[in-house]
Design goal:
Radius of gyration: 27 Å
Shape: elongated
Strand content: 15-25%
Helix content: 25-40%
Number of strands: 12
Structural class: alpha/beta
Strand order of the largest sheet: 1-2-3-4
């Protein structure tokens, strides 16, 4: 999950093992249990600052968020950031920003977290909240909106006497397309993705082919690219989508068409039987 999130554009991970194994930048804060383990919130903050003097982010909502922000203001500029994990995040972030700025701590960043997803983040930004970073956990790691993904394989070709015969399923509601396929992508004059075409693998067609073999007989055909190169390619590909396709409302549709060769190969679908006329 940390690897996938970093490839897709997250700035880092709190999973230190992912940082050790994969080289992903790590970042994090203290837990509520750390704060609660000390007699006072101030002692918890100062002990943490002593352990992590170069990267101290203090969690300030264990008790009273604004009182904790005033405590941070007294501790001073050694604190790099504060994190708010509950409550009205836009309102609290503005109040905390005022407290820090009044103490001359304009450089102290504000991080918010707590059951965040893309929609809550968009709402926080829409309300002009002075938030510098977002910590996302549950909705990033777990598939809350689609907890199950149905995957079924179907045959598309059968070898008979040294030749390939295309096959397809034609049952209502679950038809498939026959033939060994390729996907080709077309772009406009600005380099933005315009449409895709699903075609036969040996069909002469323009456009960039998207499918290529990576493994054969259990072995990689070429070394995998570095994680940083994968991340960069992901960013470049996303930037080549039009803005409507990148919007959260999901109203834009990306056209995917069938090639003429695939249309000719597509079997005729069974038509529903005509219903009897109920009239006498």
């Amino acid at each position: 999950a940390a690897r996938a999130a970093w490839i897709a554009g997250c700035a880092g991970t709190s999973n230190v093992l992912a940082g050790q194994w994969l080289g992903i930048p790590t970042a994090g804060t203290q837990a509520h249990s750390w704060v609660m383990a000390f007699p006072t919130e101030e002692e918890a903050f100062r002990k943490y600052l002593r352990l992590f003097p170069e990267s101290t982010t203090l969690l300030i909502d264990t008790y009273d968020t604004l009182d904790a922000a005033r405590l941070v203001a007294r501790i001073g500029p050694a604190v790099r950031a504060v994190r708010i994990d509950s409550g009205d995040l836009p309102r609290l972030s503005r109040r905390v920003r005022d407290i820090l700025d009044h103490a001359g701590l304009e450089s102290v960043r504000i991080v918010v977290s707590g059951d965040l997803n893309e929609y809550r983040i968009a709402d926080i930004l829409r309300r002009h909240s002075p938030v510098d970073a977002f910590g996302v956990g549950t909705d990033m790691v777990l598939s809350a909106d689609a907890p199950a993904l149905g995957l079924v394989y179907k045959l598309v070709e059968v070898e008979e006497h040294g030749r390939m015969r295309p096959v397809a399923k034609s049952s209502p509601g679950k038809p498939t397309l026959p033939g060994f396929k390729q996907v080709r992508r077309y772009e406009d004059y600005m380099g933005k993705f315009r449409r895709d075409c699903l075609c036969l693998h040996d069909e002469a067609a323009p456009g960039e082919p998207l499918l290529r073999p990576v493994m054969r007989r259990g072995r990689l055909l070429a070394p995998l690219p570095a994680l940083s190169d994968i991340r960069q390619r992901c960013r470049e590909q996303i930037n080549r989508l039009s803005l409507p396709l990148r919007a959260l409302d999901g109203r834009a549709e990306y056209p995917v068409r069938l090639s003429e060769g695939l249309r000719r190969l597509e079997p005729e679908r069974p038509r529903p039987a005509p219903q009897e006329d109920p009239r006498p």
